[in-house]
Amino acid sequence: MQCSRRPVPTSVVIAASLLALAACKREVRNIRPDPAGAETPLSNAMVSLSPGGGPPVTTHTKKGEDYLKNAYELAQGNTLFKQMNCNGCHSNGGGGMGPALIDDEWIYGSTIENIVATIREGRPNGMPSFRGKITDDQIWQIAAYVVSMRGKVPSAAAPSRDDRMSNLPSESRRDKNFEKAAGPTTGLGKQ
Amino acid sequence: MIRRLPYVFAFAGVLSGCRHWQSAANDAGAEAERIWSLTLTFTIVLGLIWLAVMVAVAIIIRHRRRPPFSLHDARLDGAGHRRNSWIVGSLLAATVATVAILTVLSFMAQRPLFAGRAQTAGIRLIGHQWWWEVRYDGATPSEMFTTANEIHIPVGTPIRLSLESADVIHSFWVPSLAGKQDLIPGHNNSIELLAQRPGVYRGQCAEFCGLQHAHMGLLIVADAPDAFEKWQGAQRAAASQPQENDRAKGAQVFVSKPCALCHTIRGTPAGGKFGPDLTHVGTRAYIGADVLPLTPGSLAAWIADPHGVKPGVKMPPVHLGADELNAVTAYLIGLK
Amino acid sequence: MPPATVMPRPADQRDTGLEDAELRERLAYTWGRRPGIIGWLMTVDHKEIGRRYIVTAFAFLALGGLVAAIMRLQLARPEQHVVGPDLYNQIFTVHGSNMMFLFAVPVMQAFSIYLVPLMVGTRNIAFARVGAFSYWIYLAGGVFLWVSFILDIGPDVGWFAYVPLSGPQYGIGKRPDVWAQMITFTEVAAMATAVQTIVTVFKHRAPGMKLTEIPLFVWAMLVTAFMVIFAMPAVMVASTSLILDRLVGTHFFNPSEGGSALLFQHLFWFFGHPEVYIIFIPGTGMVSAIIETFSRRPVFGHVAVIISLVATGMLGFGLWVHHMFATGLPELGASFFTIMSMTIAIPSGLQIFCWLVTLFTGTPVIRTPLLFVFGFFFIFVLGGMTGVMVASIPIDLQVHDTYFVVAHFHYVLIGGAVFPLIGATYYWFPKITGRMMSERLGTWNFWLAFIGFNVAFFPMHILGILGMPRRVYTYQTDVGWDRLNLLSSIGAFILAASFALFFLNMLRSARVGPLAGPNPWGAGTLEWLADSPPGPHNFDHIPVVTHATPLWAERESLPIATGISVNRREILITTLAEARPEIREASPDSSIWPLLAAIATTIAFIASIFSPWAAVWGSALIGLTLIGWFWPKSMREDEE
Amino acid sequence: MKTRVVTDVSSLPRYGFGPSASTWWGTLGFCAIEGTGFALAIGMYLFLAFNNPHWPLGFAPPVHWPGTILTILLLVSLIPNVMVDRAAHAHDLPKVRWLLVLLSAVGLIAIAIRFVEFYMLIPRWDSNAYGSIVWFLLGLHATHIITDVGDTIVLTALMFTTHGRAKRFADISDNAFYWYFVVGAWLPIYYLVYWFPIL
User: Fold this and answer.
1) Which residues of chain C are within 8 Å of residue D154 when distances are taken between CB atoms?
2) Of B76, B124, B247, C437, which sits with the fewest C-beta atoms within 10 Å of its C-beta?
3) ipTM for the whole complex
4) So where are chain C's domains?
5) Mutate which of D2, D8, D11, D14 to disrupt the C interface (most C C-beta within 10 Å)?
6) Distance CA C302, CA C280 (A)
7) CATH topology of domain C39-512
8) Distance of alpha carbon A163 from its chain centroid, rounded?
9) pTM of the predicted model as reported, rounded to 2 decimal places
């Protein structure tokens, strides 16, 4: 083992750089959520009430971006989507009683902040309000999962296939224009 | 009696620690007793073999010679070849014989294990990520009930548990009663428990199942047959209506808050299927899959912040006011 | 650069009629490499690659030991918060995966890469450039795992990654993919090295070295290489199908679509059990080599030990289901595997009896290597005894996946492989570096390791009986495990101190240790014929072998073979059974292509856990570098 | 240490064919590795087949004619394979050249047929366990055809350059040896994928 004088400092440099990498954590798991976490305020107007109203105005929040990139939150959202019976009306995203979640027609806005507002307040024609029924973090998780159903999250973070039977490819295999391919499924969304 | 000998044996001195209700040596179950005596037999036989090898090594060390080395003092003549062959041959024969005997002993001990597999299961045990759902079958649907993390069994009669998993592989293991069996999705296993002495025996999930694998304990309470019947009768009944006003307020809070979406309390509108059944949670000795003892203080702490005790648990921290928390705690403690 | 005194060389200069000094200089030039960093990257010399492998494997041992220390800190007292559950799961998975895939198997193959060519009397390992490729892939795999761990995407599903926890639904993010792809890296490296070892032992032996005269260490590495070839594809298939399940949605292990979770366990343990023998059998080879030298006589029953090595290797494939006794298997299957698990104790027993008789009838001289062999006897035999216990189904149902099993496999792996490995490092360190390691530090190292190990791991037997399951990040106060866990943690730190002393001894002795001649221990096998450290060409003349320990048998004058080229790299190909010379085959020159191919393979492997298309363009990239590697660089290579 | 010369090896040849050449043993080693991989994949297929009550799962057995054509083509290709092996032993450069071109063409046709097979498969790899294991078997064998055909094409190019002499004939012989393995590995997979569900 000819360890001449030179390599000792380089191994120190390598070790230091490896530790520096420790700063940028990628798949952070928030396994200790804040118990006193109240609702995060959202200021996004829904439909502007003027005639021929334009699309819903939305404000992007850092919390929304974090949830969309975090595999742990998306996986929890996937589980909650089934447990809270969202698939009862929306089925696996193709729509049923409720509108389809994988096409590009969104009356109340398709960003994560809009979806959180929709889940919290509920919408006319049957969308129940979940405020107080599930915690706010869970609402953000479900909303993040709904965004991932259209392939709008990084595929490394999106949930892979479930250990269940399913007709659609998993969220991680849906690319950006999946919603175009899905197209207007039932037309119900148009009401 | 051979069974009492172990307590004098090497382990005795070290088996201190306050309570051994989760130990293979505290053999209260028929299966555990069979396995424990087999373990002791193996330990004694194999320990003697190990000791013999150590004695041989000790003789070699004592019988050695001082250096120096040189190429010339290596001996190639192979003196005593015949004697050495005899020694190795006989030791090999002894090894083969010992292995054969131990294999036969192992087969005799395993026969009852595979015997009763075909019988119908009295209890359905479903493993979830990080707690146990227990469903008692009954002749009619009204006799069937669901509880969690604590299984009562009658002493003296064998009970078969069918083992299923709702998510990942877990492993049902109560060392004082029997060996372990895995709960594998898509694969139906079962295990038979026969408690010989009444008592409380602790078990734990023995197959790594994720974040809180360490806090997935369960209790088996072996009751005398009449105590078991009384317990079963109480469990079958729906939850009693709360009389005191603070418990009534607690019941109202329970139904209106997120609790009802995951937990079921039979006799109330709360019917969620994803958390443990809380109909008779007051009768349980521990909560959170054997994480905290059931006292008002620990129950309130658990409801307010489950992640403080069991980080990563699927139960979210529900934001309750102080009075709501006290009301719910009082209500749940009262569900006897 | 060419030595100054070299006269102009005719096309094919032979070694007959050249004096030693000039012969040595020309051979050193022919087999040497360009100096500097480029030369370092291009070398195909089995000694340089072997040394790199050993240093890298010991670095991973140190890292693995560090995380083990954190685990013991967390478990020293009940309900501690040294590390949270998420980090602890990553730590125990990385500890297991690192020790099994990045330390144990590679360090044994590293000793094989370095020593087998020397011990069979040839100048370089077979397919030398594949050896360079194998090292770079191994290094890439190790760095990939540890950088992922530091980036918080370290695997957290256990070193065995059972489905469905590591499956697409419950294995969240890219963590299980990191484990699965690290397996691909290390298996490619291990299988390439295994093929090299087999071809070197079968075809490149010194003339006259019959099969029964091959040293026992080389036999052990040969059996290990065969086990690698037939075991590692199983984990490659398992990890590839796991990645396919997670990435493109196949259903191999999805119970609701016809797959089965047990399929993964069968595939993994079909590799898993031979893997632990792949780690243990080289340990026995090292013990044989050390006992032979320090008891001053060849090992008694040379052929008997060979047969038991081969028997252990073959039986190792027949008992993988004893890892799955608790999954509810049919009785007939489980009973068959009990018998197989019990019978494998017999060949190991035979080896130990042969060693004891060798030591008893020889004149043993206690040096640090032999100290570690005595430590091996004490610890490994105890581990073997608990192994026979877990082979019985009823006992295994109580102790499977508990700390009893943790104690068992640390006894057989640290006792059976790491103690002989440290002994072998003290034994062959003079050959590798030319300097002796300090005996005083060695004795301290041994006693610290012996006491630390037993204090750390023996209490775990009792913890297992007391019901403590494996892989728990903490435990409650009311189950009575706290005193034994504290004792175990103290022992772990003594063991850590012994390893620190070991590394210190190596680093210090490499520079200031007393100079060791070619044969400091007066040993009998061929590697002690070469200088310490050996020149690039190993031997000035290829020896002719007449006995299992040639240096002891041919004391007066060593028979040699001549007529081998001096200005071309030539290896003597000999027949399989009697090693009669057949061909003077060319040995590859230094080349940068293995490194380029390894870089291409690394890019392809890492990218293919993010998108399946990466496997397509990745393999095209690898194909290009392989064509560059294969295409002959000069007319000379066509060997007309 | 004093030495005495016992043998002289200067008269030995520089390269050899078959078992006396290292590369032959190296090819055998990698055939053993990939052979074990094939055996385990076949083991997976049988495990899944007997793990499910009825097999194939929810799909009709695949139409067999693309597989049959490929099998016939591969078996026929053994003839030029043996001829190129003999020509290599005889160092007959022109014969080796056109045989290698023929083998490369046959290889490319085989790859084309394999893609037809994939196209004709009704179950997708992500429809269920049956689809997954069939695609896995065909994909595993496809990589082996592609790598060996790539190797043959590179060798063909090599033989048309000035390097095409002496030791390169031994490399052709090893490549032919590896083609036997690729064809041999296909037969059990062909039976399993196309005929096992029917019989």
Assistant:
1) 627, 630-631
2) B76
3) 0.91
4) 39-512, 593-639
5) D14
6) 19
7) Cytochrome C Oxidase; Chain A (1.20.210)
8) 20
9) 0.93
